[in-house]
Amino acid sequence: MRTRKLIWATAFGLLLTGCSQTNTANIEAIPPEYPVDYFFRNAEVSSYQISPVGDYISMLKPWQDRKNVFVHPVGKPQDVKRITSITERDIAYYYWVGDDTLIYSRDTGGDENFYLVTVNVKTGEEKTITPTSDVVAFVIDTLESQPDDILISTNERNPQVFDVYRHNLKTGENTLVAQNPGNVRDWGTDHDGNIRVITTSDGVNTAVLYRDTVDEDFKPLKSMTFKESFTPISFTPDNKNLYVASRITRDKSAIIEYDVKANKEVREIFSHPEVDVTNAHYSNAQNKLASISYVTAKRQYYFLDDAYQATFERLKEKLPGVEISVNNTTRDESKMIVVTYSDIDRPNYYYYDRDTDKLEKLAENAPCISQKTWRR
Description:
- This protein is mainly beta.
- It has 2 helices and 27 strands.
- A 4-stranded antiparallel beta sheet has the order 1-2-3-4, with no helix packed on it. The chain has a 4-stranded antiparallel beta sheet with strand order 5-6-7-8, with no helix packed on it. Strands 9-10-11-12 form a 4-stranded antiparallel beta sheet, with no helix packed on it.
- The two termini are 29 Å apart.
């Protein structure tokens, strides 16, 4: 804007001043332009988790252009330290498998033969727990009720199929607990860590099979074509029935309770007239089905536990205008990692202590892009 000399009357000068201020405000209201690469670059931080007893917070951050695991004590982000040193490929996932132990997956030189490694966050000691060549391994269940054990799956015996082993974190021993005949796609455990339900596939149709005890053979429960679905979620608290996301005799999936011995549906727990409902959360701390989620225009929740609902409502009060998801919790579910996101913002991470009602922002997934400058 060109500078003008004030040669007219004061009133007209004031008018010009007002116009100048308005134009400046309009210019300042125009959001900044971001380089295209801002929208495609890797997240600066992701995959926040809290340790089972709530002592540590972990996350994935770049180191030498690769995502590695970093850890810091709760409330002390200034004491963050890197506990992995991977330079060949990003760490894609990791889990807490003990009060001070993490497990992650890696390969060698990009060969995609992923093997499992545990690391002690206090000492930095690493242990490779599966073969490192010509074998693929992954975690099936962290067995929260049995902190010393985890269930893993590898194709060590036969490259074409994956068997299940129980790995003891203290002794390092791997014990075969289920051998895959060749068609098992998914394994399901009860609350004691026993594999009692499996999903098989012949490439076209799928089937769910069940057994009462680990000493018995699996028996057919349901067979489905590609038009149907019957997906076990968890066992009921007494380990007798199953919670299932079912589209059998329905045009949309619903969460039901299924009697495996009688081979029939007991009750419908929740359904929605417009969308499939397939996600349900089982609380190990309370030993009950706690919540169900589904997506309409945005994610919605149906609660079966008053404490869960109260926590969620409190988080909504503290974090208005965004979608909220609980990423993971401590073993007693009193402390948690909360993730928020919206149509104009990438994920933001928070630490929440339910007992003290303390909410602490941990990080933004993409701080290079400010959601405050985006137009709705």
